[in-house]
Amino acid sequence: MSAQLGIKITGMDEEGMEAIMPVDERTCQPFGILHGGATAALAETVGSFASFLTIDPDKYRTLGMEVHAQHLRSVSSGQVHARAEPIHMGRQVQVWSIRVTDDDARLVAICKLNVMVVPA
Description:
By secondary structure, this protein is an alpha+beta fold. It has two helices and six strands, in the order H-E-E-H-E-E-E-E.
């Protein structure tokens, strides 16, 4: 799905991970604005990838349990930027906060991703 939507990881540090996604015909709804489902897919992608990097992949897997997106602003062009940061890093459950902004750094959506950590 990441390739279909044009999602690209753009950076990571010890506090989180960042990604971008274009706002174009692949990610917009029929009225020409960013589709909420595309925003949720961006949030789950960057949060899931960040989560995966926190575990030993020989012993564990991370699986998305729930994604919640609160849409605050519409976007009709450019790209959106997502930053995932951990809220809770338990042995079995991780919770990630993902903030989605537009090219002018205005808040577009606030998302939360719950991830389950399971044995490989």
